[in-house]
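As agreed, record copied across for absentees:
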Amino acid sequence: MNRRQTIPPQQKYTTKQFLADFPTDDACLEYMLNKRWPGGIAFCVECRVNRKHYRVTGRTCYACPVCGNHLFPLAGTIFHKSTTPLTVWFFVIKLMTSTRVGVSAKQIQRETGVTYKTAWRMMKQVRKLMAEKIALRGPVEMDDAYFGGSDSNKHSHLRGKAKTPVLGIVERKGRVIARVLPDTTKESILPIVGEVLPPRTMIYSDESQTLAQVRWMGQSHKHSTVNHSKGYRDGWAHTNTIDGFWSLVKRGIGGVYYQVGREYLQSYLDEYSFRYNRRKVMVPMFTLLAERTTTQVCPSAYESRKSLLPSVSTQAQPW
C-alpha cells in the first residue's frame, strides 16, 4: 500500500482553502469583477472613458461614480440572472473539478441543499465552460467507441435505438479530444482528423477500415495499426492510451450518471476531457476552470450595447 501523498502540492485545493478564498457571495462577485475588469476599471458606455467603478450596496453590480451607469460582472456568464448564491455556484465548480469520474446532480443536491432541477442545470452550465477546441500533436492514438446499453437492459420504449458512436484522438502522455459522430463513415471522421491534427502526423489505431482512410486524405499522415485479435501491442503500435480514456469515461458514466442521452453526451465528454487534459498541470483544476467563468455563454444587454459603440480613445475627452 502506497502511504505517500500522490497529489503534488501545486495541484491541491482543499475545502479549507476554498472557504478561505470564497467565504461570501461578495468575495465571489469581487473575483468576477477583477477577472473581467482588473481593479474595477472598465469602459463606461455613458461617459465613454475608462473609469473605476464602485460596488452598489445590495446589488450584484458596480456603478460609475460620475454618471451612475451600472456595470454587471455576471452579465452574459453562466451566472446570468441566476438566483442561486454565488458561493453555491463556485462550490459546484470545485466539486466537479475535484473528482476523477464525475459527480452526480443528486450528490450536488445533497451537498448544497438546492433542488435536483437546479443542481442539474448548474452542472449543465459548468460543462459549457469545459468545452474547448484544441489542436493535437503526434504521435497520437485514434479509436472509436459506442455509448448506450444493449436492448436487453433497456425499457421497452428505449429499445431499438442505435448506440451513439464517438471518435477519440489522444496524444501519448498528452491531451485528448472526443467528438460525438452521426455515424462512423469517413465523411464524418476525416473532417475531425483534419481539424485537430497537423499534416504528417503519426497515427496509431486498430485495423478499422474507416480509420485507415486517414492515409489518403491528402495530409501525408503516417498510419500504423495493431491487430487486437493477436495482441494489444505490435511494436510501437497500440491503442492502450485511448482505451484507458474510454474505460475512464464509461466507468464514470455507468457508475455515476447511469445513462446519458445522445443530445447531452458531447457535454459529458467535454467534462471528462477537460479533467484528463489537465491531470498533469501543476495548477489546481478549480483555479483553471474558475478563470473561465467570465466566458460569455448567454446574451448580455451590456455587451451588446458596448459592441454597437464606435471605438473611442481611452483618454478623457475635453467635454
